[in-house]
Fold DUF4440 domain-containing protein.
Amino acid sequence: MMKKVVLMLIVAFDATGVSLYAQAVTKSRPSAPQATAATDPAARSDDEKAIRVLLDAFTKAFDAGDAAAAAATYSENGIVVDEQGERTEGRAAIRDQYARSFADNPGSTITIKVDSLRLLGPETAIEEGRTTIKPAAGAGAPDVSRFVAVYVKQGGQWRQAVVRDEIARDLTPHDHLKELEWLVGDWVNESQDAVVSTTCAWAVGGNFLDREFTMKTEGRPVLSGTQRIGWDPLKQQFKTWIFDSEGGHGEGYFTRIGDEWVIKVEGVRQDGQPASSTNVVRRLGKDRISWQSVQRTLGGTAIPGVDEFVIVRKPPQVGK
């Protein structure tokens, strides 16, 4: 009977979302026992308390970077579906996934805010809420997502059976852009050929980031421009618009891969030639960024890329 309940929950979860959970459980249970469990205040209180204890155990395991302990809060055949729809099935696979995540993001911690917890019967429950994963100090902005979790009771112990994360679409553009807030400030790159200075600040209203850049050679400005970065709610990605002082312009989208941001840009120069590039930005710490440009084209022809170089934050001026 338990396998039947879990299977029906998983099918409903993937096909049509939360609304079918209750139907799936109702159809798989005799009506009288379920009604008794659902209306017994003492039983409900004990089960809700046990689920809170389980959630606390998961939080402590996550904060400690203990993949085995985090996976132990799942059922043997548990399923996790991330924001991109990638499925991880089975406790062992979930443990391995957490191990990789903890290795890639050491020191991350999680906060779980529960919006609702509903007991659908003596052995099933659904929880909805929001998670905030905060990286280690200086490693970026918190990652916020919504989740829906199905719990099952096996051998008297509650376990996570299905957990699905979803992008928190109720966040404002400003909330999303906090992930890139580390760009705010004054930056400089100096080489034998040129000096590039960049200033980034919040736009009026706080829903965009504006960057101003200037390139000088032998002390003379040779190129300047502006860049605006915002959140595209349709593509659920950061988008950038770029305008240079010579009349060229372009736009592109950000994709995050681990510690790197990959920005694919397409545009047109002032002479009408189309141009494109893939720029890779990596945060090296609080005050250092690496930048590289590859897969560059001009007028439909491949051109050499730009080797990786480091941009550093300018120290504050004396008296400011």
User: Anything to note?
Assistant: The longest helix spans residues 41-64. The chain has seven helices and 17 strands. The domain at 2-168 is CATH 3.10.450.50 (Nuclear Transport Factor 2; Chain: A,).
